[in-house]
Amino acid sequence: MSDTRLNNVIRAFENGKTAFAAFSKLDKQTAIEMSDAPYDGLIFEMEHNPYDVTAFGDALQYMLNRKEIATSGSLAPKVTPIARIPANGVEMNQTFAKQVLDRGAYGVIWPHVATVEQAYNAVASCRYARPKNAPLYEPKGARGDGPANAARYWGLSMAEYYEKADVWPLAPQGEILVGLMCESVQAIENLDDILSNVPGIGLILIGEGDLSQELGFPRQYEHPEVLDAMRKIVETCHKHNVVVGNPHVTAKNHRRLISEGYRFLMSAPQRTYGVVGMARELAGY
User: Fold this and answer.
1) 210-216: long-range contacts at Cβ-Cβ below 8 A with a sequence spacing of 24 or more?
2) Rounded Cα distance, 112 and 117, in Å
3) Model confidence over 38-94: pLDDT tens digits?
4) In 3-state terms, what secondary structure has residue 21?
5) Among 79, 88, 208, 284, which is most exposed with the fewest C-beta within 10 angstroms?
6) Which stretches does DSSP call E strand in the chain?
7) Do residues 2 and 160 lie in contact, with contact meaning Cβ atoms separated by under 8 Å?
């Protein structure tokens, strides 16, 4: 079992497919309900909702389904849990990433990342330290060592966890997805430099809400200026072969998003399964 890919979002990306996800409230009942949802991943929202790492740990446990584990032959949850943390790029706060990873998260979404330095910190915060002569040394790991809970949640020994607890795609065997939110004009201007100079970024997620605010068209996601800004993000990500995602997938825009090359689609609200079904059918699976 330890050789099986544990992160379903990464599995979709490696297979050239689109990954589907949703934001989720941080409570046990939602975790239970979402444990068999038709998503590859579930992002627990702790940027705009309260940050409660104890509740997060409980939610992860409620996502485990013993029957599903026995049937699938994989120790991983059917829906991969990821956390959006409150710390943004400017704050450089590594503690939030460390705490959710130590509880067993398979990825971290970092809001408001706009510079190379901020992007470097985000990736480094999700990696353990290693000797300078070790392969894949950069970005230099800054995650503190406390793997016991995460290893148990992943169903691995500590040695196995250390092997897999690195960032993908920098480390091919890595199971941790680092997603950076691009949600400002500054971020768009610096995105090419970010993707050129910071390895280990698995996903760029467009923050349409904040971006549209800064452009002067709050939540007008179909406004030409907002669409043009998003197009620039998509083009830059495609240039660097980095997955780009959209957090506001609806019945009206899912065809356009897939045709434009988005490969991480988040439906809102969290239980709009019909939209996911339509998008999967359109994508051919």
Assistant:
1) 210/112, 210/183, 210/184, 211/182, 211/183, 211/184, 211/185, 214/184, 214/185, 215/185
2) 12
3) 899 999 999 999 999 999 999 999 999 888 888 888 888 999 999 999 988 778 889
4) strand
5) 284
6) 19-24, 41-45, 80-84, 107-110, 167-168, 176-182, 203-206, 244-249, 264-267
7) yes
**Spatial distance between the Cα atoms of 76 and 64, rounded to a whole number of angstroms:** 8
Give residue 1's pLDDT: 43
pTM value is 0.93
Q: What is the pLDDT of residues 233-281, one digit of tens each?
A: 999 999 999 999 999 888 888 889 999 999 999 986 555 566 666 666 6
Structure tokens at 62: 């409620």
Q: What is the set of domains in the chain, with CATH numbers?
A: 8-283 (3.20.20.60)
CA distance 109 to 86: 9
Residue type, 140: K
